User: Fold this.
Amino acid sequence: MEFFTKTAVDAAILAGEHLLSKYKRHHIEMYGSDTLSVSNRGLTKEVTSSLDNEADEIIVDLITERHPGHNMLTEETGRIDNGSPYTWVIDPLDGSSNYVNHNPFFCVSVCLAYENTPITGVIFAPFIEELAVARKDYGCTLNGRPVDVSTTSNLDKSYIVGCPGGDKNNSRFALMSYVLNESIKDFRKMGSAAIEAYTVASGRVDAFVTLNISPWDIAAGVVCVQEAGGLVTDFNGDAWDLSKTDICMSNGKLHESILSKIQVVNPGHRDYRVTAKQDDKSFV
Assistant:
């Protein structure tokens, strides 16, 4: 498995360095739209630039060369099924909106799963020069140093990060933010799920919650958090796998308290109370 981890690191760094080399450009070609200037605002949060696809090609080519029989699931290419128990789960540019708006919080996320269980996770944030590497049963490191989740045990002293993930309607995220802010020290949004995940693993924040998220956004981060001693579940408290979309990652000590707060946005739970209308303010 060490060889697999090296592949993940090499792929993430190669793609990340390519992204960084283009980062200082003032204009980035957008698929399906006019050229986007970093001064433009008011766009949908879901952005795909030419750099997403270039980084994806770099990663796919390297993995195909070294492990030609493995499956792949990437945000840009989709699923490549070779009938293998091994699947590479890849986000070539996590935080695309940050990237095109010249925000430095973007990264490359590369994970290897065996029979749907992530076993290696690598996240490389090239501008801030941080590399998180995790391997099942071998812990998590950040820039080569072992890291652990925080020891915060009181919800009122906790810092939590989150994002709406793939939810088109922000009602659930708005309500989740509201109910958490009542009880915690602060709730923050960074714009990159993979970076938010490894901030939990490194103990910089105490938890990360997200909604309707795609597996490539968080698979590598899941390994990092678990190997740093944290807990990852869906909103029902069940173990995470690649099919889960509502995710809570925490230091473990706060997990039950956080889950109890966010049941109001958990469809099917008796406490669920998000309205169908995005502009309904009844939850406040």
User: Anything to note?
Assistant: The first strand starts at residue 27 and ends at 28.
